[in-house]
Amino acid sequence: MAQFDAVVIGAGFAGAVVSRVLADAGRRVALLERRDHIGGNAYDHIDDAGVLVHKYGPHIFHTGDRRVYDYLSRFTAWRDYQHRVVANVHGRLMPVPFNLTSLDIAFGDRAPDLARRLTAAYGEGAKVTILDLRRSRDPELAQLADYVYENIFKTYTVKQWGQAPEDIDPATTARVPVFLSRDDRYFQDPWQGMPQEGYTSLFERMLDHPNITLRLNTDALRVLTLTQVGTTLVDGAVFKGPIVYTGAVDDLFERRFGRLPYRTLDFVFETHPVEWYQTHGTVNYTVDQDYTRITEFKHLTGQELAKKTTIVKEFSKAYTGQDGEIPYYAVITPDSRALYDRYAALAGEYGNLRLLGRLAEYQYYNMDAIVGRALDLGQELVRALDREMGKG
Ligand code: FAD
Ligand code: UDP
User: For strand 282-285 and strand 262-272, is the pairing parallel, antiparallel, or unpaired?
Assistant: First the structure.
């Protein structure tokens, strides 16, 4: 390891972007990945039927951050794709986020009056969280809020989190507000789309750099030792350069303060001998079924394939830490955050160890947020390494 300036653990967006920033600045990076592939949870591949699928659940890129879009555009062209989601409410499909079109579908003749009341209360184009809407004093709007709560949020959230919407972190349901508009896109960010040749190709290009040495099938916890005295060993030798860790932080410390809570998912893929399985990229099952949603990949990727399509159903459950289970979503509560803070403080005792990414930071981050944070950290590390060299 002496030949490397930095060690990065995990080849998802966090680890890949940090590695590339360091590499472009002339630093040599060892990138260690436990899985047999790059891309983290954004990894995609061609399945047995020839369909491009996302192994760890559907990923749609969207961002309001021009810097992130420009950076990733170095490694991919984009397919213009605007994600649209509908909820299946007892067989009736309506846009999610619940918007003025959903209002028409659900309320018929009553919709124009409700739309006027909504607009008067919150303003045209407003995004109102379901928890806020439920606080409305207008009895008509309170009834509407009950409808949306019961038919869009309650069952889906219980399936996804094992808890009612009012009992989870409010930021989670706020991701999908009631939208006083007829814009039926799932995201309103100015830059959205899918990597033209898929995410894995994007990662291949990003990691194709002479200063990056990638080691797949390498569990960093087997090669990294955190000593009692705040030093870090890699492959048994003291390593003083930056170590960026993007895995679960409780794993890093063998869960010594207890396990952080996460939700995991089972993905059930099905290939059907039809052109299209459903009308939209994703259909959310908000009042029935055990799965939360069905995504049909061809809608997202634009792949043309006659009479064949692959879908995925997502089943959510509590993460137990068993071998093979993957922690996908941090279950953020005041208790879990306090537990996370203890682990983060412990990590802080190792001056060269940095936590980055959705798992290591225990946050509900989208891909673009992770890329932005990785760019910042990469640049910070480059500056620090430059300063050190100046000193030397
Ligand atoms: P990850 O992608 O999880 O990468 C971490 C990597 O570290 C993994 O490859 C892992 O194997 C590796 N690792 C962990 N521990 C070790 C170890 N000990 N040694 C070596 N390697 C290790 N975001 C969007 O913007 N749009 C979407 O549509 C979207 N859809 C999503 C759908 C689902 C079902 C999920 C779960 C997430 C979705 N996200 C989406 C979020 C997106 O997946 C994350 O923002 C992104 O993957 C985070 O990147 P990361 O590098 O932090 O983590
Ligand atoms: N949600 C819901 N019904 C829906 C869509 C979302 O109740 O039809 C809630 C649910 O609690 C979910 C959260 O809003 O976990 C965030 O949804 P999002 O689609 O952003 O989740 P992700 O794609 O990250 O799984």
Answer: unpaired
Query: How many domains does the chain contain in total?
Result: 3
Tell me: do 269 and 190 sit in the same domain. Answer: yes
What are the residues whose beta carbons fall under 8 Å from the beta carbon of 236, sequence distance 6 or more?
A: 225
Q: Does ligand 2 come within 6 angstroms of the Cβ of 96? A: yes
pLDDT digits (tens, 9 = 90+) for 80-101: 999 999 999 999 999 999 999 9
Question: For residue 77, is pLDDT > 60?
Answer: yes
CA distance 31 to 216: 8
β-partners of residue 203 are none
282 touches ligand 2 (CB under 6 Å): no
Q: What is the CATH number of the domain that holds 358?
A: 3.40.50.720
Q: Does 65 lie in the same domain as 31?
A: no
Please tell me the distance from the alpha carbon of residue 225 to that of residue 365, in angstroms, as a whole number: 28
Give the number of the atom of ligand 2 that is nearest the alpha carbon of residue 160.
15
Distance 123 CA to ligand 2 centre (A): 24
313 and 367 fall within a common domain: no
Residue 292 Cβ inside 6 Å of ligand 2? The answer reads no
pTM of the predicted model, to two decimals? 0.98
Q: Please indicate, yes or no, whether residues 69 and 158 belong to a single structural domain of this protein.
A: no
Predicted pLDDT of residue 2 = 83
> pLDDT digit string (tens) for 233-272?
999 999 999 999 999 999 999 999 999 999 999 999 999 9
Q: Check residue 389 and give its pLDDT.
A: 82
Mean pLDDT of the residues in the chain: 97
Q: Contact, 60 vs 85, CB < 8 A?
A: no
Task: Look at ligand 2, atom 5, and give the residue with the nearest C-alpha.
Answer: 176
C-beta of 328 in contact with ligand 1 (< 6 A): yes
Are 364 and 271 contained in the same domain?
A: no
Closest ligand 2 atom to Cα of 168: 11
Is the shortest distance between the CB of 180 and ligand 2 below 6 Å?
Answer: no
User: Which domain covers residue 355, as residue numbers?
Assistant: 6-38+207-257+333-388
Determine which residue's CA is closest to atom 7 belonging to ligand 1: 10
